[in-house]
């Protein structure tokens, strides 16, 4: 049983919609940062911040695979039950006409939401195909430029968003020395550049 302060912290965590989405995704299977970022359309930096917060609160546990990618999974089965009890002496009533109008309004809104969802899903399917084709093209053409799969992983991560060295370390699971060496190589090849705090694909300023 959680005490009052623990319940308050848990509600603070679950009060964020994206953290709830991450938890729902991790209910299905363990995931690594880039996978969560792609599935939920969130920046890797935001995903890392949410994961680190939940890991500090011991809601998540992480482990590394053979490629040193850090996987996250739920440390507890999270079930939140809210019990709402009707207050005595308070009654609300609607006429039959009001109930019918409200019901029809709900049905029409539901219809619009379903159609909007179908349109979005169709667009997302097209985007997923385009992204998949582009990834294959990058892997094919990059084989003549990149010298390792680790370089490809870093390039693909930076293709999503500009990232700090700490972000890349979290994403890749590489040691700081190896990561720094790979980034220097990518900079020398003219593929990556850096600002004071972030690394990015060359020419990606403001894009």
Write up what this structure looks like.
- The protein is mainly α.
- Among the domains are: 9-74, Arc Repressor Mutant, subunit A, CATH 1.10.10.10; 142-201, Arc Repressor Mutant, subunit A, CATH 1.10.10.
- The chain contains 8 helices and 5 strands.
- A 3-stranded antiparallel β-sheet has the order 1-3-2. A two-stranded antiparallel ribbon has the order 4-5.
- A hairpin with a 5-residue loop joins strand 2 (60-64) and strand 3 (70-74).
- The termini are far apart.
- The model has no long low-confidence stretch (mean pLDDT 83).
Class of the domain at 9-74, according to the CATH hierarchy? Mainly Alpha
Q: Report the end-to-end length measured between terminal Cα atoms.
A: 48 Å
Q: Averaging pLDDT over every residue, what do you get?
A: 83
Count all strands and give the number.
Answer: 5
In CATH terms, the superfamily of the domain at 9-74 is Winged helix-like DNA-binding domain superfamily/Winged helix DNA-binding domain
Record the strand order, biggest sheet: 1-3-2
What would you call the structural class?
A: mainly alpha
Overall geometry: extended
Which residues form runs of ≥5 with pLDDT under 50? Answer: none
Q: Please summarize the sheet with the most strands.
A: 3 strands, antiparallel
**SSE pattern:** HHEHHEEHHHHEE
**Helix content bin:** 55-70%
Keywords: DNA-binding, Transcription, Transcription regulation
Pfam families: HTH_5 (PF01022), MarR_2 (PF12802)
Domain HTH arsR-type: 1-93
Protein name: ArsR family transcriptional regulator
């Amino acid at each position: 049983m959680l005490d009052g302060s623990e319940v308050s912290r848990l509600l603070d965590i679950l009060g964020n919609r994206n953290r709830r989405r991450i938890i729902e995704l991790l209910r299905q299977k363990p995931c690594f940062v880039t996978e969560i970022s792609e599935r939920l359309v969130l920046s890797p930096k935001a995903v890392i911040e949410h994961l680190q917060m939940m890991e500090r609160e011991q809601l998540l546990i992480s482990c590394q695979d053979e490629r040193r990618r850090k996987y996250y999974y739920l440390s507890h089965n999270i079930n939140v039950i809210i019990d709402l009890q009707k207050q005595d002496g308070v009654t609300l009533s609607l006429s039959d006409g009001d109930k019918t109008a409200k019901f029809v309004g709900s049905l029409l809104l539901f219809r619009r939401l379903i159609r909007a969802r179908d349109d979005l899903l169709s667009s997302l399917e097209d985007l997923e195909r385009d992204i998949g084709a582009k990834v294959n093209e990058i892997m094919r053409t990059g084989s003549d430029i990149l010298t390792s799969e680790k370089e490809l992983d870093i390039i693909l991560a930076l293709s999503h968003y500009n990232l700090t060295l700490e972000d890349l370390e979290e994403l890749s699971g590489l040691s700081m020395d190896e990561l720094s060496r790979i980034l220097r190589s990518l900079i020398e090849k003219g593929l990556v550049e850096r600002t004071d705090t972030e690394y990015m694909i060359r020419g990606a300023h403001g894009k």
